[in-house]
Amino acid sequence: MAYEVLEAFDHVGRDLVAYRTERSPQPVDPQTVPQPATLLLRGENLATTCQLTQEIRGRLPRRPLHALAAHLLTPWPPTTAAMAWQAYARERQQRQTQLITSVRQAGIPATTVAALAALLSGEEASWLHLNTLWDYLV
Description:
This protein has helices at 16-22, 46-57, 62-72, 82-105, 110-119, 123-133.
């Protein structure tokens, strides 16, 4: 299933495909396009997803998750020089490292994170799902 959390005056506009592409993990490689299919959830995985999410939610501070999610949704400007692209890629890696450090400090097993990533279309997509559904997967 595809889902979207809309609050207040949010709306997807007229082009659902473009909107879902913008809400997908933006690739670091400028030659790669975002994959909206990573935002799909499989119904048969929801119970396990909720269980794993609860293990993480109860321990992980939201700030590093939110910071990484914001970066994952920000495409690098295509007119930027190669050095700026390298800085963009480094910043994403630093945010991922900060989040993984927070996960470890919170005592969340790496197997929990890996299992969630396997259910939710990979590590980057799993962080976006977790950030978006933080208040809803209870």
